[in-house]
Amino acid sequence: MTVKDSVVQVGVLGAGAWAQFAHLPGYTRDPRCKVMAIADPVIERAEAFAKQFNIPHVYASHEELIARHDLDAIDVCTPSATHFSLSWAALEAGRHVLCEKPVAYDYTETRRAAALARSKGLKTKLGFTFRYSPAMRYMKSLIDEGFIGEPFIFNGYEQNSQWLDPQNPLRQVDHTADQREIHVSSLEGYGAPIMDIGHLCMGSRFAQVVGTMKNFIPERMVRATGTMMRMNIDDGDIFIGEFANGAIGSIQTSFVTVGNYPGIEARVYGSKGALICRMVEENGIAETLKAASADSVEFKELEIPQRFYPTGGSPRESWRSLFYSNLTHSFISEIRGDVDGNEGNFEDGAHVQELINAVEKSYRERRWISIPLAADGTP
């Protein structure tokens, strides 16, 4: 179902900071789409964004927005626990859906939503922001052109010190959960983007993994309560694995590793060359890409061609709007049929969530776990 040669009309669910600094600027930048409506239970926030981004209709109810008949796409930018129900409702209403990660904590639910979208001819997209960074787009282009040759090794890092200070309030954590066992947090919240990039760069998915999780700082300020609490979450984790194509890889994510936010780094090594993409805002620059070859083993920084940037984009733009503008541009292009395919969709999200579920299972059972998992979560 495409809307070729017409303006794609979008409705946005959620008026939080990520909508303000990433989603809405992305749509505003693209003349092929128009945000027609925004909804948030705190309607004052939605009203403020409507004024800022010239959005004509405002709702306090997500259901009211989804019920509109003039929308082509729904953008789900709400707290994680609501993602699946809102995405499902939007798909059932016949709308293309962009959803922030994860669609669901159980990969089988994400796969179910992907199947519903396929059955209706709808496009879906996950908020895998970093696969759309200009440097990563260029890196993937070089890989596709054969720069690295046969892929051998992938190393992925999410190095972030936002919560090294326990007084910085944690968000989107279940403070009522049983704290006698560790709960997945960094692995899912920050691991997902670099896992997606691993699949993207290696042209394959992890086939088996073994990993561990650690709670380094147990007492934290929790946003939901405004108090210090015992929060037994993985604020650091690491896993290694084997890809289905024979390559190997490692991924580390953390809330407590010193380094600037967002701290995503992807390294790919192959039979002919290697690439390092560092998507970290440092010294006013949003990202860098370095390359080496078998004939010239010293890494040298590459200039990213302008064709990989959104309109008016530059390395000195905030990574939030810079990367996300490429994401929304991709989504609108797919909806309109301007490009073939549907990258970073719910099926890709299901594979990432299955990997997260497998790493958690590996930690709890202290063993290698094979992927795919069975429907009941067993290997």
From TrEMBL:
Residue ranges constituting the Gfo/Idh/MocA-like oxidoreductase N-terminal domain according to the UniProt record: 9-126
Pfam families: GFO_IDH_MocA, GFO_IDH_MocA_C3
InterPro entries documented for this protein: Gfo/Idh/MocA-like_OxRdtase_N (IPR000683), Gfo/Idh/MocA_oxidrdct_glycsds (IPR050463), GFO_IDH_MocA-like_dom (IPR055170), NAD(P)-bd_dom_sf (IPR036291)
GO MF: nucleotide binding; oxidoreductase activity
Domain of life (superkingdom): Bacteria
Keywords from the UniProt entry: Oxidoreductase
Gene3D superfamilies: Dihydrodipicolinate Reductase, domain 2, NAD(P)-binding Rossmann-like Domain
GFO/IDH/MocA-like oxidoreductase domain sequence ranges: 137-275
Organism: Gemmatimonas phototrophica
Record-given protein name: Oxidoreductase
Entry keyword Oxidoreductase: yes
